[in-house]
Amino acid sequence: MRSLLPYAQLVRLPNVFTAWADIVLGLLVTGGFWVADGDSSTFRWSRVGAFLCLLIASTSLYWAGMVWNDYFDLDEDRRDRPGRPLASGRIPVQTAVTVGIALLGGGVLFALLADLQADSMRFVSTSIAICLVVAILLYDGALKETLLGPATMGACRFLNILLGLSVTGDFPPVWGVLLALVIGTYVAGVTMFARTEATASDTTDLKTAALVIGASLLLALAVPALAQARAEFTTSVLFPYLLVGFAFYVGLAVVPAIRSPSPAKVQPAVKRAILGLVLLDALLASSLVGTLGLFLAILLLPGVFLGRWIYST
């Protein structure tokens, strides 16, 4: 098991449950494993298969993003984070390259398998997965340190939400795009917050990032309003109150980091915001499928548990 620890660290294993939450969110808000058939619904085993394939595709692409992140950051990590798997030599660089390529290919392959089980055969999942591969490589290899870096990372999460929504085999509706935009904006803000987490951060940058995160939560309030044209959607009465509670949950770590922008303050805030993605997904699910959607938050537990031993940032 100890031989697997460097790979678990390389792919940020605790964080993968945030990617799973995106796919489960897509499944829940598109009707689960049931497909509308006139006035009734029919259970579709093909939807089960498509969901499982998308779950694997999302996992593979998320892990690929983490591998390529450390590959392109190798010189920086050797200077600032020498204990990381590639910087320390516990995982050979060539092995990481091979794993990264295999994970990217596996993500597209399983997205294709999901499409093959859909009735429409529009290859929506495959198209989204390919766009996600491009976004991952652009972020890790070229745009991370530029002004476009946070927006590109946000685009990666935006596409992952769309990947979950593609379980139906169709292009996501307008409310689905807004749903993805909320998560994408949130992640862009978190990425801005984490840009210099290994050293002293700039207070102004942290404040700007916090405003972007806040804007994403305000945007979340529009999701149920846009989707209410469909009668099958039910918004939990708890949704707006829990959204405010979530803002406080993140803010309790973000505010101290802004006041004292040291790695000891910023890194825990980033970790909370990243794992908080599961909670945000659960809240958005409750805005469309009722209080039952809050059960998605259970995916937070394994991430928190594993985060005690494996870093998330």
Secondary-structure-derived class: mainly alpha
From the 3D structure, determine the CATH topology.
Tetracycline Repressor, domain 2
Number of strands: 2
Strand order of the largest sheet: 1-2
State the shape.
globular
Helix/strand order, N-terminal first: HHEEHHHHHHHHHHHH
Estimated helix fraction: over 70%
Report Rg: 19 Å
Number of helices: 14
Integer count of domains: 1
Q: Look at the structure and give the CATH class.
A: Mainly Alpha
Please describe what this structure looks like.
The chain has a single domain (2-306), classed as Orthogonal Bundle (Tetracycline Repressor, domain 2), CATH 1.10.357.140. The longest helix has 28 residues, at 45-72. The mean pLDDT is 91. The chain contains 14 helices and two strands; from the N terminus they run ααββαααααααααααα. Helix 10 packs antiparallel against helix 12 and helix 12 runs antiparallel to helix 13 (263-289). With 313 residues, it is mainly alpha-helical. The protein has a two-stranded antiparallel ribbon with strand order 1-2. The chain has helices at 5-10, 16-29, 45-72, 74-80, 85-88, 93-116, 124-143, 149-165, 174-194, 203-220, 222-227, 239-259, 263-289, 300-306, and strands at 34-37, 40-43.
